């Protein structure tokens, strides 16, 4: 979705990005569609999440070119933490016992899954176009599925394996330089 939303912001759409995005979207479809080819409400929520995540990647691309990515991430974590703390007391009744019981998961999620991973994403996006970043990040679904196979004993259907292959091919194709870029590289510098 990032390549298509990027058009509205003046980002060029290379043929390799278009082919890669369509191939990866086909892979997502194959991995998530049910055997009777129906879409569940959860799939629609994932689509909505993908839209917002695409907008987040484009915003991060814009902001990391103007601000230090580590400071940007730190500021975002601070604001998000304060807002979530307020919401926690508005809609829940947190107890110290509950917090202690979830401390390991809270620390892992807060520090590694959110803090380190998101900061590394921001630093990486400073040096990578948003379309290519989004294609690489789309492999999260593949790695999540592989983790289910390795740690939970899940299995893939043939359709899901075809989806994984399509996603990997889509990411690979989106990284290929277009013919125009290759022609520019072949011209001697005068």
Q: What does this entry look like structurally?
A:
The chain has 190 residues and is an all-alpha fold. The chain has one domain (2-186). The protein contains ten helices and no strands. The protein has helices at 2-7, 15-32, 41-64, 69-91, 96-101, 103-126, 130-137, 140-152, 158-175, 179-186. Helix 2 (15-32) packs antiparallel against helix 9, helix 3 crosses helix 6 and helix 7 (130-137) packs antiparallel against helix 9. It is globular, with a radius of gyration of 20 Å. It starts with a helix and ends with a helix. The mean pLDDT is 85.
Order of helices and strands: HHHHHHHHHH
The count of helical stretches stands at 10
* Mean pLDDT across all amino acids: 85
Our estimate of the beta-strand percent is: under 5%
| Mass-distribution shape | globular
Q: What structural category do the secondary elements indicate?
A: mainly alpha
Q: CA-to-CA gap between the ends?
A: 39 Å
Low-confidence stretches: none
Question: What topology does this entry show?
Answer:
Layout: H1 2-7, H2 15-32, H3 41-64, H4 69-91, H5 96-101, H6 103-126, H7 130-137, H8 140-152, H9 158-175, H10 179-186
Helix pairs in contact: 2-9, 3-6, 4-6, 7-9
């Amino acid at each position: 979705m990032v390549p298509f939303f990027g058009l509205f912001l003046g980002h060029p759409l290379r043929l390799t990005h278009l082919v890669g995005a369509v191939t990866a979207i086909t892979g997502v479809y194959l991995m998530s569609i049910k055997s009777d080819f129906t879409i569940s409400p959860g799939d629609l929520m994932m689509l909505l999440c993908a839209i917002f995540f695409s907008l987040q990647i484009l915003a991060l691309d814009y902001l990391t070119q103007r601000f230090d990515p580590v400071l940007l991430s730190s500021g975002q974590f601070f604001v998000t933490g304060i807002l979530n703390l307020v919401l926690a007391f508005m809609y829940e009744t947190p107890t110290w016992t509950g917090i202690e019981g979830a401390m390991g998961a809270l620390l892992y999620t807060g520090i590694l899954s959110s803090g380190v991973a998101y900061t590394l994403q921001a630093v990486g996006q400073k040096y990578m176009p948003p379309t290519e970043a989004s294609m690489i990040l789309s492999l999260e679904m593949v790695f999540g599925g592989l983790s289910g196979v390795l740690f939970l004993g899940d299995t893939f259907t043939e359709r899901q394996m075809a989806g994984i292959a399509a996603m990997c091919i889509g990411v690979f194709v989106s990284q290929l330089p277009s013919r125009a870029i290759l022609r520019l590289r072949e011209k001697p510098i005068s």
